[in-house]
Design a protein that fits this description.
4-stranded parallel β-sheet; binds adenosine monophosphate; binds magnesium ion
């Protein structure tokens, strides 16, 4: 990356503007954590509700201590194992942190991205950057600089081009809650780092831990039923062999019956019935499928079909597919069994 572009981005950040930042997961919309107007701008530009917290991105292990209250031993091991990389650790927050970033929670999500341009930018800014995915709230996440520029044409934000995001879906979010006897771990969002990867990293360690499911929604903010939605409806049809006239009629009927909004996210419906169907074909390799998924959704939506249909599913559904299927289920307006 040209240092002049990084310099320009650093200046934008210090003026309280947001900057499009490439990361290995998806592109982020970044602001300095110590700049309230920049943080506010993220929520405004994204049209993001204030209850959905931002992830703090760091470039140096020392910065972790600046944003959290304490670093549990298990978190140190996980950070050493997976950082820089697509794992966000949710830890007790420092009181100094702007509470807009954490949506008023007593925890903060932190990660060190592995993308060299993200690391360069954070280092040059000299302060951690808060960044959610660089898309309008509820919409498909961006995996190229062009996606970000298209999404925010009107806002005209500066975007650093770091090529195609290699992971392609958002980071794994892990809540780490040390208790007296045992440390509780909860995966709040599935991602490229798997539960089995985390178990492997902790295998030879003396610490006691257990995975628990967090039922309390306040502990898992930003987990709406719908998210990542393309501009035309995505329909997942699990049982279909091929798109038929009968299936088209079922989709049309069911889509028009849907409510307009679920949990603040507008449900995407066909404007004038389903006439033209675009088919989404996933790569057979789950890593490549995840890398390409969001850009496939965008490319197909740009051809302006009445709906996007996904019916060819992987023959072997392994743990590796889970994070992508989480995104597919949330991006879909309709799932037909
Ligand atoms: P985004 O970068 O747009 O995918 O959004 C960041 C996501 O990280 C949020 O929607 C939450 O799911 C998660 N997250 C960030 N901070 C926290 C936190 N303190 N507690 C729980 N989840 C968090
Ligand atoms: Mg997002």
């Amino acid at each position: 990356m040209l240092s002049s572009e990084i310099k320009y981005a650093v200046n934008e950040l210090s003026l309280g503007h947001v900057v499009g930042m490439p990361t290995e997961t998806v592109y982020g919309l970044a602001a300095r954590i110590d700049c309230a107007s920049g943080i506010e701008a993220i929520f405004k530009i994204k049209e993001r509700p204030f209850f959905d917290p931002l992830i703090v991105h760091i470039s140096d292990f020392n910065q972790l201590g600046e944003v959290v209250k304490t670093i549990p031993e298990i978190a140190k091991i996980l950070a050493n194992t997976f950082w820089p990389g697509p794992l966000t650790l949710v830890l007790p927050r420092s009181q100094k942190l702007n509470s807009l970033i954490t949506s008023g929670l007593d925890t903060v999500g932190v990660r060190m991205p592995s993308h060299p341009v993200a690391l360069d930018l954070i280092m040059a800014a000299g302060v951690p950057l808060a960044a959610p995915s660089a898309n309008k709230f509820g919409k498909t996440s961006p995996t190229t600089a062009a996606h970000v520029r298209n999404e925010f044409k009107r806002e005209n934000i500066f975007v650093l081009d770091g090529g195609e995001s290699q992971v392609g879906i958002e980071s794994t979010v892990l809540l780490v809650r040390p208790k007296a006897e045992i440390c509780e771990l909860s995966i709040l969002r599935k991602g490229h780092i798997l539960k089995s990867d985390i178990e492997n990293a902790l295998k030879s360690q003396p610490f006691k831990y257990e995975f628990i499911e967090v039922a309390d929604k306040n502990q898992a903010p930003g987990h709406m039923k719908h998210h990542y939605m393309p501009s035309v409806p995505l329909v997942l049809c699990i049982g279909a062999r091929r798109p038929s006239e009968e299936l088209r009629e079922v989709m049309q009927k069911r889509l028009t019956e849907l409510p307009d909004k679920i949990e603040e996210v507008a449900i995407v419906k066909p404007a004038a019935g389903i006439h033209r169907i675009a088919e989404l074909v996933l790569d057979e390799d789950p890593v490549l499928a995840a890398r390409k998924f969001y850009s496939q959704l965008r490319e197909l939506a740009e051809t302006k079909p009445d709906c996007i249909l996904l019916y060819r599913l992987p023959s072997q559904y392994t743990e590796r597919w889970e994070s992508l299927f989480d995104r597919i289920l949330k991006a879909a307006s309709l799932v037909i069994p």
